[in-house]
Amino acid sequence: METVKKKDIRALTKEQLRDFFVSEGDKAFRGNQVYEWLWQKSAHSFEAMTNISKETRQMMEANFVINHIKVDQMQRSSDGTIKNAVRLHDDLVVESVLIPTKTRTTACVSSQVGCSLDCKFCATARLKRMRNLNPDEIYDQVVVIDNESRLYFDRPLSNIVFMGMGEPLMNYNNVLKAIEKITSPEGLGMSPKRITVSTSGVPKMIRKMADEEVKFKLAVSLHSAIDDIRTSIMPFNATFTLADLRESLQYWYNKTKSRITYEYVVWEGINDQQKDVDALVDFCKFAPSKVNLIEYNPIDDGEFRQASNSAIDRYVHTLERNGITVTVRRSRGKDIDAACGQLANKQ
Ligand code: SAH
User: Fold this and answer.
1) What is the mean pLDDT of the chain?
2) Where does the pLDDT of residue 276 fall: very low under 50, low under 70, confident under 90, or very high at 90 and above?
3) Which residue out of 24, 95, 122, 167 is catalytically annotated?
4) Is 340 marked active-site?
5) With contact defined as beta carbons under 8 Å apart, do 293 and 326 qualify?
6) Which of the 8 DSSP states describes residue 223?
7) The pLDDT value given to residue 92
8) Which residue owns the Cα nearest ligand 1 atom 4?
9) Are 110 and 164 in contact (CB under 8 A)?
10) Is the predicted pLDDT of residue 300 greater than 80, yes or no?
């Protein structure tokens, strides 16, 4: 006999769940109860839904599955950072990272298995894109890190950054659905202001986000404000040019009035000259901006090298002189390959 593939119950909306119970001769309210188990209480099995009758639980078991993620391996860095290797229902693996500071716990979550884009300096790009994550697979990563934060740091998760594997704006609908659940009182009830979506810069999607007046924050991985240079390290820039990116960001700012953060690595011989700094100043002065200078995490045999301290100082001084906020970020979790650009499923 052929077995029918059961549907993932978390692909249903609350309304669809309510309708399902009505069609089974039960009350719509049962849908609410199950929905609460699935999201707010993050149940891994129907069995765990203790206020639902055994018959109903068995009926659900016969119709659906709960494709909850499994943490295959958890690694802890000497600086407190935790990296989870997360196994999905089809056996693919993504990674997510918990980054603790004195006052905060930040979850760095993945949005795709592999990545759609081809940045030359990023380990994830070498995996190529295998598939998009579903909303529940993104949500689960956050729940796991929230639990780890409570367990190891005695406090709930405070911030989320979409800076793990993948390009979130190439999986926009699912990322948005996950954020809706994360921010909903029926999910985790977190404030959207504590969530940052980081993109390599997909102008069409930035405009769409602006039109939808999303409430989370936007970060753009810029790395160079000169087209030729950016294209050489981020080849998709040939299609999504800086002029187009800048126009979309201007549109975003006009609509949302939300400050834009730029992520930027300074590499020796690539973008470490005064002309590079000047181009950056020129690129971001149309709106209040912040530049995060991120430390380079080597992923290969030395094609890319972090620039000298004096080159980084030049960036800091020039940006500050032009009224642009700048921070220099130290990497976290390097010893367990958990830092920016190092997520590549090696253990
Ligand atoms: N695709 C999204 C989010 C994932 S990358 C984006 O591009 O924004 C998260 C950040 O790490 C990006 O700013 C990326 O440019 C940066 N990054 C990638 N590889 C890196 C490396 N080897 N060292 C330091 N930062 C890196």
Assistant:
1) 94
2) very high
3) 95
4) yes
5) yes
6) S
7) 95
8) 163
9) yes
10) no
Question: Which structure tokens are listed for 295?
Answer: 């430390």
Query: Pairing relation of β-strands 82-87 and 70-76?
Result: antiparallel
Exposed / middle / buried, residue 51 (Cβ in 10 Å: 0-12, 13-18, 19+): exposed
The arithmetic mean of pLDDT across residues 161-170, rounded, is 96
Name the β-bridge partners of 290: 261, 325
| CA-based max dimension of the chain | 73
Say if CB 86 and CB 95 are below 8 A apart.
Answer: yes
Q: What is the pLDDT of residue 187?
A: 94
Q: Which residue's C-alpha comes closest to atom 15 of ligand 1?
A: 221
Q: Is residue 121 lining ligand 1, measured as CB closer than 6 Å?
A: yes
Which residues touch 110 (CB under 8 Å, ≥6 apart)? 86, 94, 95, 96, 133, 138, 141, 164, 165, 166, 343
User: What is the share, in percent, of the chain residues with pLDDT greater than 90?
Assistant: 88
**Pairing of the two strands 105-108 and 93-100:** antiparallel
55 is catalytic: no
Q: Which two tokens stand for residue 45?
A: 């099995």
Is the Cβ atom of 122 under 6 angstroms away from ligand 1?
A: yes
Please indicate whether residue 154 or residue 125 has the higher confidence score (pLDDT). 154
